[in-house]
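Batch job 17 of 40 flagged for manual review because the log was empty.
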Amino acid sequence: MAARVRASVEGPRALFDRARVYLLKERIPLPGITVLVRLAGEVRRAENERLHALLPGRLSAEMRAALVGLPAAPDGRRRSELERLRTPPRKASGRVLAGELRRVAEIARLGAGVVATAPVPAVRLRTRGRPSWTRTASEPLRHPRGRPDFESPEMPETCYLSGMPGDDHFCSGPSEDHGDAVTAVAVSADGRMGATGARSGEIRLWDLRHGLLTAYVGGLQDGPVENAAFIGNARRPQLLTTDGSASLWTVAAETLEWRRLPRDGGRLLTSADREAVLRQCGDFRWLGVFGLSDRHDPAALGRTGSGLIVVSGDRGLIEAWRRPPRERPYADAEVVWAFGGKDDAADQRLTRCCDLWRLVVSPRRGRVVVLDAETGIVVTAFTPPARPTAIAAHPDRPLVVLGGRDGSLSWWDARSGHCLGRVQAHDGRVRALALATATDLVMSVSQDGTAALWRLHGRGPVGRFAPPTPAASRELTQAAGTPDGRCWLIGGRGGQVHVLHWSGHAGLVPQRVGRPSWTMDGGDVETLLDDIRHHWDDGTASTTAARELATGDLDEAWHETVADALADLIVNGADPAARETAVIALAGIAKDRVTTALYQMFDRHDGHGSAGRLLGYFTGEDAPTTEQLIASLPGIGNGSFLGVLTSATLGERGTTAVPAVHAALRAFPFPTRDDTNHWWRDETTKYWLLYALRQAGADAAPATPTLLAVLYDDEIYRDTRHYAKVALQAIGLPETADTIAAEVRRRADLLVHDENGEDDESEGFSLLLDVLLGMPPAALAASREVGPALEAVRRRFGDGPSTYEENGELVQVYELHLADCIDETIAEQIKE
């Protein structure tokens, strides 16, 4: 920890995180969190004091006397001598040059350059030498032992924060690059200010005109910074960032105000702000920008002329939503159209809107599909020559730029599907693209560490940048620029940040060249991840990639990213072998995520024997009998992925296992007795048995009466009852619908009285009707009992009022509403 303090300018939170990671890697028992926090603070404070005292102690008496007078302003002057000596010139001329030479001579006469600075690292010297107005408010201007702080004068300006939890989270002034991979970049429209966000949650602000860091903030984000966009005006710019939620940073001359936005915080933004966000980001993973719910999986792509909000989901669906009316601000958004599914999943990371949000461009399964944003109808489709790994869509024109896995760059007319040009841009895959929307320029950054600027019809780059850093850590991953293309901000996987300026006569000139501050082990992980993310193109390649990730020693920093890619493969993969390999890999990386992924996989795909093969892999047992599987269920806890695999294996066996599963379920008493010591174990076992029947589908039809008994049991656990409903719907036969409808009709014709002798009209109706509503439409249309049952429901509830008032709105009686929905489903099925 002391060595890290000496060699960097990291704050206490970053130091604490590094210490925690070190302890975990070395398998050292972790102390209490306050112990580690206190230790990090003490070590940081002691090392800073030691470094602070080191240089003043090496000054001679003459040099000390000369420096003491520098912070004071001479009589009749507004600036101190120190401020005059360190202020650079503002214009170039012969007279200014002569004055600058005299200023350099004065500085040399002070003798400061002859002081030995070893072993103080250069980064610490730059940090200690910054002016006081760029310091943290908590930093002293005078040494605690009484020695003068010769590096900076006392100035009236102070740097303070409004709305921040603590001073140690904020620091400003020169610093090294990010200590983690850059995950988001943004540039203000005037090109004066830039922002970068890292995987660690750290945010840094940059002066792009001079390539200088102006401020950095850590410890306030809940996770990696996913998006960043500048809004507001040049006088009072604001930065909107997202992690799990959204934060709004207001940048002023001497303050940086921070505010965490609520889930519907989009109401604080103007229409111009929302448009600026979408134009800069392309996709924005926080639907609160439109005042919608706080669901975080979908990403907003654009807003059409009629007010539809186009979103892309993590399961490959593209949808258009209509916001609820103002009188019902918290109601769910209405889905107007949807495109895609399990057999035609889109890559959410590469989906964009273009042409004033009129077109949606979506790469899927080796081709690119273009949709009409108002209707969801396919406008055109085309196949790029290389697998897309990056995309940029022009917000005002039907122009799409694709970066390929082979390092190529291609321009496409999104309305006609014609290729407008193609160049070989880089030696490695293209990782990010950024358009200068007021010109025909596009910036591409690559895995090989280079950045290149291109024109639409040009055969060669108008500028190229290759930083002098080792190839293993120089990969560039993020890019953003001004609309005129004159200023660009580039971020890399090693945390490096580059600032590039472009002009027609000078080309692409680096204003700041960053250096990777860390190297993530596993240079081929990105290649393996790319194969996994494009599993719909090549199942064999994705299987091989998942197998390599499962057997390799993966750096901890990769765990979350790899787990996301593996979970997507498990849920959306078309090849059973690839899905099974991904389950094994995910169990070794993030075991807590396997259960949810398995549920989603079995919901979307037929078994194909996957459950049995995976169960054999994890348990080491070959072909256990049905009785052995059922006997093992009471010992499996709730939420265990082994329970999912065991139940799914029983379901895969179909008619051979259903009688035994049904018998095991009937062995439990109905109604359930909640006074037993093993109630929870019994409920968990019933849950797994019901999941097995659900997986068996139509083969579980003989268990319908028992499933209805579970549904009626008031003492049963809610999740167990829910899976009885799901199992009935999974059976999905017209005969099952007949049985449920007959029970609805019997209850409708039967007068049920409560203890006061009054008619209890709600007895069991809503639950049974809800089950019917979830049945396959074909089964409902073929059933002979559903129609008479719905008529009986309307007779039963038609005698009283059909609506009632709730929160100032008229609401239809729930049973009548369900009956109407079932009728609509049957009518649509007959029409089809």
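Reviewer: the log was empty due to a logging misconfiguration, but the result itself is present. Residues 33-54 form the longest helix (22 residues). Unflagging and moving on to job 18.
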